[in-house]
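Bumping with the actual sequence this time:
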Amino acid sequence: MRRLYLDNAATTFPKPEPVYAAVDNYQRQSGGAVGRGSTARALAASRVVERARASLARLLGQVPSERFVFGYSGTDLLNQALQGLPLQSGDRVVYTALEHNSVLRPLHQLRVERGIELIEVPATPQGTVTVDAFRAALAGGPRLAVFSHASNVSGALLPVHDLTELCRQAGAWTLLDACQSAGQVPCSLRDCPVDLWVASGHKHLLGPLGTGVLYLREGMEAILRPLRLGGTGSHSESEQQPETLPHKYEAGNLNAPGLHGLAAALDWIGEQSVEQLWRHDQERTAQLLNGLEGIPQLVLHGPPAGPDRLGVISLSFPGLDPQEMATILDQSFGIETRAGLHCSPRAHQALGTLSAGGTVRLSLSPFTTADDITHVLASLQEFATGMASL
């Protein structure tokens, strides 16, 4: 049976071929720890990691490369950002109903442990957030606003430039969760000057699992407390954590094989260009959404095709548990999707799918072809016809 992987919002697969080669070459030929030692192999490993930082700097608007900190996942670095800020009792934090549990759960813990006040920006029934609703939530002087660039449930892209400007006017720090958008949606951190920016390395940055990135605007390193302390390979004579970037937040050995893969992935993205990858995503998303509209009984969730959404499509079949639907698509048609709440319960509450157990999510990648979409549409048509005959 033909197999088609469409769970790229969780982690992209396949990766570009150079990613596999880079990880394998590191494991077999290098083995040097990053920032530890002066041997040729150790120095070569460190140069690859610095190449990855430089690629990120070019990808995101020619910002200083040392401001990119590597960690072990988007979740790891969202925790660093949220728990490392000096939030105190009574501080107001604005977040949206579209946020992932990687944001919701740390915020809940901060409310319990530090007494912060949480202000939720409601989402629309299409799974997006309006500028007016965000502006209203900022009234009263929040200390921090945290919001996703794109929803991992509805596929909606938020107007981050407008939201960042509103936060600046309100005097709030801004934390942008770019885990769903980095690598496929063009974004310049010079034009959109958020204070903190986080991305997963294994999603549309196309790197291996176990990699994540945090960007700090100039001056934030004086505010953000590091959560992980220890050896950095620099300033080893001091009992204090180095204050220099990126070492302040990179205690312990970095995931060298993962970062070698990420460096290769970023090289590949640079060769294609994010703009080209974004056009591809828009074309395949429009093809899929237009075809799905003609299949009876399937319910689509999220905005229509266009520049305000990406290739993350949630759908449901009335009366059928999403987990059961995903199993049928996998076992009968070879289509691998994701079913459930996708770690974003508030988003499903806005879409009206929470009580039904969520949705079935199809998420595309740079390697999803027009033929793949044709296969998906034919399979879903056969699925819907079969369900109607029961």
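The tokens above came from a reply further down the thread. The chain has a mean pLDDT of 96.
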